[in-house]
């Protein structure tokens, strides 16, 4: 057993969250009470939160149990990793305009990404055999990695292409929500050299 959570555990939704991912603030904090314990192991470790602006074309690591592709029923039974690249939101907006049929519920001509969006695309490289994050990966983390091998949570998966898992994925940017996250404690990383 990795952790024990009591009935006193509380979930805190971002106060600006309005149930619409297009407006951002798609983030919650689970606050453990004093009696709750997490057992850290080789595989379960604390992570800092990324405080820096993520550069365009930065290589990031995403994790999740989501579908392996759009037509797959059910989620993966093992935690999977994929490599993704941060892009300017204009790249993702252009993909929406090019494939409007994939976004039937969005007003694409008037669509604007909110500033707390991290828009990522799959890293196309022979070593990256995993696909783009997909249905079932929502809420999962995306990490930066520094030159010493330390990870920091750069965002949490908010939304992506509803009917295909191949165009792009949008994460809620951890650094953007720093003021709110700081109200729960100091978990942000110190300046360091990012890989990628």
Q: Strands, helices and their partners?
A:
Elements (H helix, E strand, L loop, with lengths): L2 E2 L5 E4 L14 E4 L5 E2 L9 E2 L9 E6 L15 E8 L1 H10 L18 E6 L18 E5 L5 E10 L8 E5 L4 H5 L14
Parallel strand pairs: 5-10
Antiparallel strand pairs: 1-4, 2-3, 6-7, 6-9, 7-8, 8-11, 9-10, 10-11
Can you describe this structure?
By secondary structure, the chain is mainly beta. The chain is 8% helix and 28% strand. The protein has helices spanning 89-98, 178-182; strands at 3-4, 10-13, 28-31, 37-38, 48-49, 59-64, 80-87, 117-122, 141-145, 151-160, 169-173. The chain is globular, with a radius of gyration of 17 Å. It starts with a strand and ends in a 14-residue tail after the last helix.
Strand arrangement across the biggest beta sheet: 6-7-8-11-10-9
Please report the number of helical segments: 2
Number of strands: 11
Largest sheet entry: 6 strands, antiparallel, barrel
* Chain-averaged pLDDT: 82
N- to C-terminal distance: 34 Å
β content, as a range? 25-35%
Q: Which structural category fits the helices and strands? A: mainly beta
Give a quick precis of the structure:
The chain is mainly beta. The chain has helices at residues 89-98, 178-182, and strands spanning 3-4, 10-13, 28-31, 37-38, 48-49, 59-64, 80-87, 117-122, 141-145, 151-160, 169-173. The longest helix is centred in the middle third of the chain and has 10 residues, at 89-98.
